Amino acid sequence: MFASLSDRLSATFKSLRGKGRLTEADISTTVSEIRRALLDADVAVPAVRAFTAAVRERAGSAEVSQALNPSQQIVKIVHEQLVEILGGDSRELTFAKRPPTVIMLAGLQGAGKTTLAGKLGAWLKEQGHTPLLVASDLQRPNAVNQLEVVGERAGVHVWAPERGNGVGDPIQVARSGVEHAREKFYDVVVVDTAGRLGVDAEMMQQAADIRDAVSPDETLFVLDAMIGQDAVTTAQAFADGVGFTGVVLSKLDGDARGGAALSVRTVTGAPVLFASTGEKLGDFERFHPDRMASRILD
Ligand code: GDP
């Protein structure tokens, strides 16, 4: 992840080494190279525009420190703008004043929602919570079973529809799951929902209906970082169709070029809360913009 963007940026910075001060021309060339590197990394155009405008303005302004050489100055500005575009400060999960807190997961099929439900369950348990996972993905034949498997692995209970009752109603399962949590004193409910391979009106309506039935405290949009430029249109469609309060970037362990991570905040306004970095339960971390920025520039 980010390997090629990192290489491109360090090459750009290297070309500034040994310069005594930055001329207008140096700044222009550097900003163009940064723009190209970001576009090649699949970063969305509005995000690239905001990023390069900020770098250009700051590099040309009086804030530039005398204590740093031009290359260091640009690295510092780019680092700070990367933090900014990645969302600034990291945000904590919001818990309801009166439990249970309801966290709904939304996203395309294959984005990593069911895997994430297990990871979140394990993580919440570690934090001293008593989570319940709710299987409202009744679209994918094996999804309920998969959630039960990850739940067992995480040592977290799973609320699933009764077997043998036909297809079942995902909205009813979500509602009864939250009710069950309230009765049995689970303090966080994670609702797994169905996705489709592409954005689909029926799926979006179902997710919106589940949202209306359980009034989530957090709706987390799970975004596969590997889907490149499509990430932005998908995120936008979910923002319009369901709405979400936060983003989880999944498959950050892959060799994606990083565009999704760098665009999603600018495009949707929602912060990235967590990162999924593999298939195992422990491959999961809070998302820290400053650490991610350092990883890109290292
Ligand atoms: P869902 O359809 O959104 O519920 O997606 P799943 O949770 O079933 O995940 C789809 C596939 O991606 C599965 O094979 C997962 O093991 C895999 N997967 C999920 N998260 C990650 C991740 O962070 N990294 C990698 N490498 N694979 C992941």
UniProtKB/TrEMBL annotation:
Residues 271-284 form the SRP54-type proteins GTP-binding domain. GTP binds at residues 107-114, 192-196, 250-253. It is found in: Cytoplasm. Its EC number is 3.6.5.4. It catalyses: GTP + H2O = GDP + phosphate + H(+). The keyword GTP-binding applies. The keyword Nucleotide-binding applies. GO terms for cellular component: signal recognition particle. GO terms for biological process: SRP-dependent cotranslational protein targeting to membrane. Part of the signal recognition particle protein translocation system, which is composed of SRP and FtsY. Involved in targeting and insertion of nascent membrane proteins into the cytoplasmic membrane. Binds to the hydrophobic signal sequence of the ribosome-nascent chain (RNC) as it emerges from the ribosomes. The SRP-RNC complex is then targeted to the cytoplasmic membrane where it interacts with the SRP receptor FtsY. Composed of three domains: the N-terminal N domain, which is responsible for interactions with the ribosome, the central G domain, which binds GTP, and the C-terminal M domain, which binds the RNA and the signal sequence of the RNC. This is Signal recognition particle protein. The gene is ffh. The chain holds residues 1 to 298 of 530 of the full protein.
